Amino acid sequence: MNEIIRFFCEQDSTWSLCTLPFMMAFIVFFAIYLLLQRSSRTAMMAYVVAFSLFFAYKANGILMVLLPLTALLSWWLTRLMSNAGTKAQQKFLLTLTILIDLAPLCYYKYTNFSISTVNAIFGSNFALQDIFLPVGISFYTFQAISYSIDVYKKKFTLDTSLLEYFFYITFFPLLMAGPITRAETLIPQLKQERKITDVMVYGGLWLIIIGLLKKGLISDYIAQYNNWIFDDPMGYSGFENMMGILGFTLQIYCDFSGYSDMSIGIAAVMGFQLKENFNSPYQSLNVGEFWHRWHIALSTWFRDYVYIPLGGNRKGKLRTYFNNFVTMLVSGLWHGASWMFVFWGALHGIALVINKLCKGWLDRLPNTWYVRFAAWLITFVFINFSWVFFRAHDMQTAWQIINHSIADFSWDYLPPFVFARPIWMLFVMLGFVLHSIRKTDADWLCQRFINSHWLVKLAVFVIAIQLVVTFRSDTPQPFIYAQF
Question: N or C: which end of the chain has fewer CB within 10 A?
Fold first, then answer.
């Protein structure tokens, strides 16, 4: 009994979709959910909201109160805005709503960044604050803002009750690391009588399995070595540094796309269809294509609510380049309160501008396999290079890793490296090989799983769990994007 009370009352810093406590809690939750889903839509939504708030409490403790407060204020102010008599009143209330939504995010995420920046510029000595960043605050804040703006622009016109809005903002699969879901995707599904089909359940289970293997097996295992490199790059050879860069490139993809797969899969099992968030981004032939494939929910959010309001591509080429660059700077700052993230965003902004500048003559190149390979290789090398600044603690460490990887690189280190870390090499090779398969082949595998006998499904699930348990690290790796 004490263990049960402790489970419900204590915050858990390791709480996430791929932990055993969550899985056990979800099984109990889902059994009751099925009963309510068939009997009462209102009861089902209230039940999911209650579980979502519990999920938020486990991740954030008492700071979870920010979530329902944000939902309540955002819903109420948006209703006031939509019922306002004049356009000026609506614009004022929209601005007020956005500022109120952003206030907690700015305080918890950017206070210490602002203080340290002021100290660095003016030589002051203001003390940093002891602030805990609530898990997922960026994601539910952006969902709230997108809802208000879409209502203001009349892109979303469905009347939304407070309970439906709470479901939309607090939906637990999306809380920790998205994907950022628009109101037009989720809320209409709440208003329909939906039957949970076998395709949704087994397709969702397939995504959960894939997500577990990406995150719990590949990402968490290879992260251990990657962390050593980024903590002490000069303690390893140039070849080992290069492997650390390559390893992190795979790690961050498997980590975040793994969460997205599990999130979308859990929603599908519950009868809700969410949009794809990753589409083999490392197959991209240019940086623009990369951002159409990577974290699609965030990319489209910044496109619709930052890039287009800045003017998009409607005000000439120079303004288009400027808007691209500024949007990527904002994206970098969103990822973290650090100048390293701003620099990472600037790198991608410059790359996007160069890509647009060269688009005319690039389009005239022959569409041959070697041209496509060269385009892919240049893009992939740039992505690897930029991830160093995303992961490194500071600029000095980032340049040490890059310089050491180039100046001290030698293939002579390959045989002893493979001998010393065969499983790491196997997982990295396996991860990139699986990433390289065509979407049609991935869809075919999913369909084969859906159509398979239930014993096959059970066996695949058990094997996946066993692999995760066998190769898990002593210290569980938190989701990288949960910190954003």
Answer: N
Residue type present at position 237: S
Mean pLDDT in residue range 460-465: 92
Tokens of 375: 């385009």
Peptide bond into 134 cis (omega under 30): no
pLDDT of residue 327: 95
Q: Cα separation of 49 and 163, whole Å?
A: 8
One-letter-per-residue 3-state SS of the chain:
CHHHHHHHHCCCCCCCCCCHHHHHHHHHHHHHHHHHHHHCHHHHHHHHHHHHHHHHHHHHHHHHHHHHHHHHHHHHHHHHHHHCCCHHHHHHHHHHHHHHHHHHHHHHHHHHHHHHHHHHHHCCCCCCCCCCCCCCHHHHHHHHHHHHHHHHCCCCCCCCCHHHHHHHHHCHHHHCCCCCCCHHHHHHHHCCCCCCCHHHHHHHHHHHHHHHHHHHHHHHHHHHHHHHHHHCHHHCCHHHHHHHHHHHHHHHHHHHHHHHHHHHHHHHHCCCCCCCCCCCHHHCCCHHHHHHHCCHHHHHHHHHHHHHHHCCCCCCHHHHHHHHHHHHHHHHHHHCCCHHHHHHHHHHHHHHHHHHHCHHHHCCCCCCHHHHHHHHHHHHHHHHHHHHHHHCCCHHHHHHHHHHHHHCCCHHHHHHHHHHCHHHHHHHHHHHHHHCCCHHHHHHHHHHHHHCCHHHHHHHHHHHHHHHHHHCCCCCCCCHHHHC
Please check the confidence at residue 476 and state whether its pLDDT lies above 70: no
pLDDT greater than 90 at residue 1: no
Selecting among 295, 335, 348, 435, the annotated active-site residue is 335
Residue with tokens 């595998």: 445
pLDDT band at 91 (very low <50, low <70, confident <90, very high): very high
Q: What is the Cα gyration radius of the chain?
A: 23
Q: Are 365 and 343 in contact (CB under 8 A)?
A: no
Whether the predicted pLDDT of 475 surpasses 70: no
Is the pLDDT score of 5 beyond 70? no
Mean pLDDT estimate for the chain: 91
Q: What is the pLDDT of residue 396?
A: 95
| pLDDT tens readout for residues 238-290 | 999 999 999 999 999 999 999 999 999 999 999 999 999 999 999 999 999 99
The yes-or-no answer on residue 348 being catalytic is: no
> Dihedral angle at the C-alpha atoms of 154, 156, 157, 161, nearest 10 degrees?
-130
